[in-house]
Amino acid sequence: MKIKFPLPALAIALSLTTLGSAISTSANSAYAENSDQVKVETPKVHGRKAKLNLSEDQKEKMLSIKNKFKSEMEPKIAELKEHKRSINDLLTRETIDKEAILKEQTKINAIIGDIASARLAYRIETNENLNPEQRATLRKLGEARDFAGRGKHQGKRGGKGGHMKQKASAPSEA
């Protein structure tokens, strides 16, 4: 069964939609023009770092450190992916060149080591930006997270509340 929409009804619906967005846009621009203060968005901090009560300077510094770290890691991660692709290519050839594969793996291991060192330097630099009370809070939050069972191996492999949970058995009668 076909449903027919009259052309005038469609035109009215489109004009109301357009009118609504135009009113919304003009209201937002009028608000910005008449406002005495313009609200400047600061980087939003979520999760554990939100509980650290970071100052505006600390938030800006953290954002700067994070952006620097990401820009340094992008080429290393791309290089790592390229070497992994190379190994896959070498493994699927007609004849396997073990020496070439091991050479690629050595390059991969070196890149992974560089990434790990850079990640540690990033953590050091961000934690140096915190005061002693904030570092203590961060430690407590980390301990609470580990105690809650959200550690290294929880998640997709089952875990708290997953399918691996055993059913309680009824007490046996003697």
Description:
This protein is an all-alpha fold. The protein has a domain at 71-142. The chain has helices at 7-34, 56-91, 98-128, 132-147. Helix 2 runs antiparallel to helix 3 (98-128). Mean pLDDT is 73; it is low at 5-43.
State the main characteristics.
mainly alpha, single chain, 4 helices, 174 residues
Mean pLDDT: 73
Beta fraction: under 5%
Q: What does the main sheet amount to?
A: none
Given as residue ranges, the uncertain stretches (5+ residues, pLDDT < 50) are 5-43
- Count up the helices: 4
Topology as a string of helices (H) and strands (E): HHHH
Number of strands: 0
Secondary structure layout:
Blueprint: H1 7-34, H2 56-91, H3 98-128, H4 132-147
Helix pairs in contact: 2-3
Brief overview, please?
With 174 residues, the chain is mainly α. It is 64% helix and 0% strand. The protein has a domain at 71-142.
